[in-house]
Amino acid sequence: MSIEVVRTVADLRARLGDWKCDALTVGLVPTMGALHDGHLSLVRRSLAVTGRTCLTLFVNPRQFGAGEDLAQYPRGEAADVALAEAEGAHLVFAPRPEDMYPKGFATQVAVAGLGDILEGEHRPGFFTGVATVVAKLLVQALPDHAFFGDKDYQQLQVIRRLVADLDIPVAIEGCPTQREPDGLALASRNAYLTADERRSAPALYRAISSVAAAVAGGAEAAGACAGATTVLMEAGFSAVDYVTVRDAETLAPVTDANRPARVLAAAHLGQARLIDNVAV
Ligand code: PAF
Fold first, then answer.
1. CA 65 / ligand 1 centre spacing (Å)
2. CB of 233 within 8 A of CB of 161?
3. For residue 58, which atom of ligand 1 is closest to its CA?
4. Considering the entire predicted model, what is its pTM?
5. I want to staple 205 with a disulfide (CB 3.0 to 4.6 A). Which of 183, 234, 259, 270 is the partner?
């Protein structure tokens, strides 16, 4: 039987309602499509821990700023549905923009603090767009579990915060970043890299990994991050938005060496803006 694609909240709730009547737990995997193995690893995790898995496909216009790549963002629903089906997902929810944001839509979910730093500073409005659409998807589906990649580490923390603050009854699970053999984190926007840029791109993972190793070995974070920025510029990146070591939960600057920390970075390479992070 081929996988079903539903487009309305009523149809989504009808399918999920049937599963819940059969006492099946539901896992939600929100995506913007252009699926790669990072997304599919979330589907695999959901299949392992829930009875039914629903993948969502929605290129959310509200998380793209003016001048960002909304128009170019890779799209291919048929290929995405085929990949979801081959992986064993049970349902695809692919709403239309006009159904997600009908005329008169006026509500925003903003996660203050956590949503304003790092990516939030460089992409104003981004996390409000993400938090709004994720809150909608979670309330529309009311899954038992929802799965997000560690690759978008700050996004994951923003989503954990909004779920806690809004008492949405869902377990949020972060799943490990999937990488190419040379270390480059899988991302839909890697498609923007030219062949030359693709060869330079793994420098980002190498740079943050060396910061993590240096800081774990007792080095001072600011010096290690400055060194990584220089390495990235020498590797061909045109600008480094940040390389920083933060508290792994609050993403505040590290003040307590005994708390878990994370190295996070964002840098521009050609048309692509790459982000990555690793644990210290
Ligand atoms: O990570 C993404 O692909 C998106 O930000 C998400 C969580 C699906 C919301 O549009």
1. 14
2. no
3. 10
4. 0.97
5. 183
Average pLDDT score over the chain: 97
**CATH homologous superfamily of domain 188-274?**
Pantoate-beta-alanine ligase, C-terminal domain (3.30.1300.10)
Counting Cα atoms < 13 Å in the Cβ hemisphere of 75 gives 11
1 pLDDT more than 80: no
For residue 261, the Cα-to-chain-centroid distance in whole angstroms is 19
Architecture of domain 4-175: 3-Layer(aba) Sandwich (3.40)
Ligand 1 centre distance from Cα of residue 49 (Å)? 21
The per-residue pLDDT for range 206-216, each reduced to its tens digit, is 999 999 999 99
Q: Flag whether pLDDT at 73 surpasses 80.
A: yes
Of the pLDDT bands very low, low, confident and very high (cuts 50, 70, 90), residue 2 is confident
Q: How far is the CA of 1 from the centre of ligand 1 (A)?
A: 28
Active site residue 39: yes
Out of 155, 158, 175, 188, mutate this one to test ligand 1's pocket (max ligand atoms within 8 Å of CB): namely 155
